[in-house]
Amino acid sequence: MLKLLRPAVTRVLTPLGRALARWGISPNVVTTVGTLGTVASALFFYPRGHLFWGTVVITVFVLADLLDGVLARMTGTDGSTWGAFLDSTLDRLGDAAIFSGLIFYFVLRDDLLLAALALFCLVAGALVSYAKARAEGLGMSADVGLAERPERLVVILVATGLSGLGVPYILPAGLWLLAAASAVTVCQRLHHVYRQAVTR
User: Can you tell me the distance from the alpha carbon of 127 to that of 55, in angstroms, rounded to the nearest whole number?
Assistant: First the structure.
């Protein structure tokens, strides 16, 4: 679903991409600013309990993940090795900040179960990404699974934002769903790589 929505979002962001290209702003600057904004917002708003507005601000910065791709195509730097490496690395930092902010939020409210669950989601999400990167480094693929990064971000941001609006049980439900989906995705990728490895 998210892959189908990406072209529509890209069309919306194209005018902004053109403006940034005219101003000489590089895609790597957009990537870096988006990540720094995500990190600062998550660690400022979430521990203080401002879940809705924190999510709104984070979502604005997360859109930079799409905007940098639009800008890269316009400036002729699409496919840059450094840009791809920077984008993937900073994605991990942004994800870690979102879950770290939630962990602080739960710890400050003495909800250690949900803090542990958010920590599990953080680790499992990192494993999902690492499994793919390591497989590709070994000449195999691991582009499979139930919950890739866009899906994980949508689940956690929607659940957190609705929780900030007072929807009961939505954040715990979102975390449990995300934990299960991430664990399944790790297993799917391990199985996929195993099948490739034993048939070589």
Answer: 24
Quick: pLDDT tens for 121-140.
999 999 999 999 999 999 99
Q: Phi-psi region for residue 169, left (φ > 0), alpha (ψ -120 to 50) or beta?
A: left
pLDDT of res. 145:
87
Domain of residue 165, CATH code? 1.20.120.1760
Instruction: Name which of 102, 91, 109, 92 is nearest 174 in CA terms.
Output: 102
Q: Is 128 annotated as a binding residue?
A: no
Domain range spanning residue 121? 2-199
Q: Respond yes or no: is residue 143 known to be catalytic.
A: no
Selecting among 78, 91, 110, 143, the annotated active-site residue is: 91
Q: Is residue 56 a known part of a binding site?
A: no
Is 87 annotated to bind ligand?
A: yes
pTM to 2 decimals?
A: 0.89
